[in-house]
Specification:
The complex is a heterodimer of chains A (327) and B (285). Chain A is mainly beta and 327 residues long. Chain A has 4 helices and 22 strands. The longest helix of chain A has 11 residues. Classes of the chains: A mainly beta (327), B mainly alpha (285).
């Protein structure tokens, strides 16, 4: 009976080539699904290999026997967080490889989504400069941009490459990066291209001599309050694997005494699978300046400032709630 | 046609108002005390950003109640609200007149803010420092004369001494940074200011040291000149950046150290610091 099933499966099966699948960022492991996976297995014989991400697992089986996908390979405990494709149920052995039998698969196995996601969170001042409403003779350089991923002009910036838990043993690709933009203080009378209006002049921007006229002083805010917590694996659903990242930031203008910090605290819930990443973002920002977040350069949320510097005194007073999916 | 447009506008306004659910806020101390944590935080955040208009007595009562709340997050938010209220005169022209009239009431915050420097939460101590700086501005001790462009916040002896005391004992870099920044960017009792800045030259936190360079440069402290030159070799870019600017502030006194500036420029890798070093050399020569 078993032989008959194997023959039938050969007619529709395709060889699962782990290296190609890994290069494509797709799922590289296919085993029977469910959290009861320990009790399941498949009949195999000989030298059997399975790839999980870039990690090769192999075992020797003498004669036809059941192989338990955890016990026989010694998978790490966090393998339970992996997305398991439940649609494929026929396995058989041939030439030392596991074949996956099903109609419609063409060499790589779909569903797991991108292998990783580059998470960017930034705050920026969209204007070319901001004036102090009372000390009108002093102005501060802005970032002069609209929402865009990977911009080099931001007040605060953090980036974290998060691994797809379905296909990776690791949770990330290195620690979160962080940076702050250069804060610049200018003299209003001598720094505008079309005084008393207009953008900052090139001469003012390129003035690196401390003091009046034009650019008076400059410095970097303390970046130690910017970062992301470690990725937390959140388990699986029938078709997806989930993880969670919290990113936060707090940094203030280094040239103004008593200046309140830019604050944000955001939790990103990512659900990887079905060739996409579904996300929710929950948390808060200040009402000023503008804030943005991206995953693989696709928008998670954009929040325009309310134009009120006083809102920086609120402790992360603007709620953020967003959801969607990226392909 | 006009009716259709009016109807469309009415519908749009109704839709907008339905989509935005107003947050629950407390409007007096009793209501605040009986509120949930969420309502307390929402109230204080709206007060911080001046989005909730209440009589000043109620504002002060609510902020004071928040500053003594058992919940760390409520206390932190209350200290932000205190800063926001006190900063009105600096950051919001519309509020200047009102803030001056109400100064005696707002001064009720001074003593609790000084006490908050001892809060167990570093973020609370940082925000207390920020609020105190803005209170000093509000209290009229600013040195700027009408029409002058040399304005600065002048710390009172009481606040300056409290900040020095806190700097000496505080284990949190977050708080020490805020205090160093305050002394770097404000005026105040010269002896206290110089002593705390010179002491902070040895702070383990690089951001503190960068503010020290900034502050000592502005006061042209002769004692610190050689130490600031040494900071040109610091591992952190912002320390080197501030050291170079500080030397320009020293003016002719820094001319003997041109070789050190030029040497620093030859090995500098950071483009902004390099431009700053070149600018400093040009200015001092």
């Amino acid at each position: 009976m078993r032989s008959t099933l194997f023959v039938a499966a050969v007619a529709t099966a395709v060889l699962f080539r782990p290296s190609e699948a890994a290069a494509d960022g797709d799922l590289t492991l296919v085993v029977p699904c469910s959290s009861e996976i320990y009790a399941q297995g498949t009949y195999v014989k000989g030298k059997v290999r399975l790839w999980v991400g870039s990690q090769l697992y192999q075992t020797e089986v003498e004669g036809w026997d059941y192989v338990f996908v955890y016990g026989d390979w010694g998978f790490p405990a966090d393998t339970v967080d992996r997305f398991i494709d439940c649609t494929i149920e026929n396995y058989y052995w041939n030439d030392g490889w596991i074949y996956v039998g099903d109609v419609g698969y063409t060499g790589t196995l779909p569903h797991s989504g991108p292998g990783s996601g580059t998470l960017q969170v930034a705050s920026f001042i969209q204007y070319t400069w901001l004036s102090h409403p009372y000390e009108w003779w002093t102005i501060y350089g802005g970032d002069f941009r609209w929402f865009e991923p990977a911009s080099s002009h931001s007040r605060t910036f953090s980036v974290y490459v998060v691994a797809n838990p379905a296909v990776n043993d690791n949770d990330d690709y290195g620690p979160p990066g962080r940076d702050v933009g250069l804060t610049t203080e200018y003299d209003y009378d001598t720094s505008l291209q079309f005084y008393p209006f207009g953008p900052l002049s090139w001469a003012a921007r390129d003035d690196w001599e401390w003091g009046d006229p034009m650019k008076r002083e400059w410095g970097y805010a303390d970046a130690s309050g910017i970062g992301c917590d470690s990725v937390v694996r959140m388990g699986t659903t029938a078709n997806t694997s989930k993880n969670r990242v919290r990113c936060f930031g707090s940094a203030s203008n280094p040239l103004v005494p008593g200046s309140p910090p830019i604050d944000y605290d955001l939790t990103f819930n990512l659900e990887w699978g079905l060739r996409r990443v579904q996300f929710t973002v929950e948390g808060c920002t200040d009402g000023f300046p503008s804030y943005e977040a991206y995953l693989n350069n696709q928008t998670l949320f954009n929040r325009e400032d309310n134009g009120n510097v006083l809102s920086l005194f609120a402790s992360c007073g603007e709620p953020i709630s967003a959801s969607g999916e990226i392909q | 046609m006009q009716y259709i447009a009016l109807l469309a506008l009415t519908v749009a306004l109704q839709t907008t108002s339905q989509a935005r659910t107003p947050e629950q806020v407390a409007t007096n101390r009793a209501a605040f005390a009986a509120s949930t944590r969420t309502t307390k935080v929402a109230t204080l955040n709206q007060l911080a950003a001046h989005r909730l208009s209440l009589p000043t007595d109620d504002v002060v009562d609510i902020v004071l109640a928040g500053m003594t709340d058992e919940d760390d997050g409520v206390r932190v938010t209350a200290l932000g609200a205190a800063g926001g209220q006190l900063a009105a005169a600096r950051f919001s022209p519309d509020a200047i007149s009102a803030a001056r009239v109400e100064r005696p009431i707002v001064q009720k915050l001074r003593s609790p803010l000084l006490s908050a420097l001892n809060d167990r939460v570093p973020k609370a101590r940082q925000l207390a420092t920020i609020a105190l700086v803005n209170l000093e501005y509000e209290s009229g001790s600013r040195t700027q004369e009408a029409g002058s462009r040399t304005g600065a916040i002048k710390l009172s002896d009481e606040v300056a001494q409290a900040l020095v005391n806190q700097y000496v004992v505080d284990q949190s870099a977050l708080v020490r940074i805020e205090i160093a920044k305050t002394f770097a960017l404000t005026e105040g009792p010269a002896v206290l200011r110089e002593s705390v800045l010179e002491r902070a030259l040895d702070d383990p936190d690089a951001t503190v040291v960068s503010y020290v360079a900034m502050g000592l440069g502005k006061s042209k402290s002769a004692n610190a000149l050689k130490r600031i030159v040494q900071l040109l070799r610091h591992s952190e870019r912002n320390v080197r950046l501030q050291a170079a600017q500080a030397l320009v502030a020293y003016g002719a006194s820094a001319r003997p150290y041109l070789p050190q500036l030029e040497e620093a420029a030859t090995i500098e890798q950071d483009p902004v610091v390099l431009k700053t070093l070149r600018g400093a050399i040009a200015a001092i020569q």
